[in-house]
Design goal:
By secondary structure, this protein is mainly β. 13% of the residues lie in helices and 46% in strands. The protein has a 4-stranded antiparallel sheet with strand order 1-8-3-6, with no helix packed on it. A 4-stranded antiparallel sheet has the order 2-7-4-5. A hairpin with a 5-residue loop joins strand 4 and strand 5.
């Protein structure tokens, strides 16, 4: 039994001395969590009557607005915002498209760059990025606006009630956070 005690005691001392190292409890201060969230924003399908007024004359500007429904809880951690846009234009007309942010009283506070030219009979998928220095506009905005401008036709084509075609717009937003 004494031999057993003499063997165990030195082994315990050697084991505890050689197997432990200093633990850095400050590591948690260096930890960070990077994540992103994707949300669908808008889906619209415009046909010829959407571009006509009550007198069946072309309307130059069509806008669609949505209310920002994101809370401010992640404001300090938001690194960037990306808008994914899918646009299909089957009209024989070009369009100009922009994404705008408006404050509570409806004043324009930010336009996401670049403004997009949509060619006639085309499909377009693009990602627009709001850089870190401009993400505060995302939280200042009360409304997001999607604006389609119908410039005059180079070929003389006009849209009327019998015009075939659609302008389909789908969008999503991805928010990139760094919780550190």
């Amino acid at each position: 039994m004494k031999l057993f005690k003499f063997l165990i005691l030195p082994l315990l001392i050697i084991g505890t001395q050689s197997c432990t190292e200093e633990v850095d409890f400050n590591q948690i201060d260096d930890a960070s969590l990077q994540t992103s969230y994707i949300f669908t924003l808008a889906y619209v399908n415009f046909t010829a009557p959407n571009f006509l007024n009550n007198n069946n004359e072309e309307i130059e500007v069509i806008s669609d607005f949505i209310i920002r429904k994101f809370d401010d809880s992640g404001k300090d951690y938001l690194e960037k915002v990306e808008l994914t846009l899918e646009i299909e234009n089957t009209f024989d007309r070009n369009f100009i498209f922009s994404v705008d942010f408006y404050n509570e009283i409806g004043d324009l506070i930010y336009t996401v760059a670049p403004v997009i030219n949509i060619a006639e009979n085309s499909e377009l998928t693009t990602i627009l990025e709001i850089p870190a220095e401009d993400t505060h506009y995302f939280y200042e905005a009360k409304f997001f606006g999607f604006t389609f401008v119908l410039p005059p036709s180079n070929s003389g084509n006009t849209i009327d009630l019998s015009t075939e075609g659609t302008l389909t717009f789908r969008s999503a937003i991805e928010l990139f956070f760094n919780f550190s």
